[in-house]
Automatic annotation (TrEMBL):
High-level lineage: Bacteria, Pseudomonadati, Pseudomonadota, Betaproteobacteria, Burkholderiales
UniProt keyword Nuclease present: no
Gene (name only): rpmI
Keywords: Ribonucleoprotein, Ribosomal protein
The protein, known as: Large ribosomal subunit protein bL35
Tree of life domain: Bacteria
Amino acid sequence: MPKMKTKSSAKKRFRVRPGGTIKCGHAFKRHILTKKTTKNKRQLRGITNVNAADTVSVMRMMPNA
């Protein structure tokens, strides 16, 4: 039986924390920043957790995590 492979895009975007939660970066922070408010850009800094509804699909993409 062949090994299950990790999706390369998922391993670049997500990290599994020791508690089992998954951390990721914020979206909408890469370009077209002139029309976004300063408050919005400030709140997009840092990292966040993946939503509980999406955790199953992210873990399916990373079977070895």
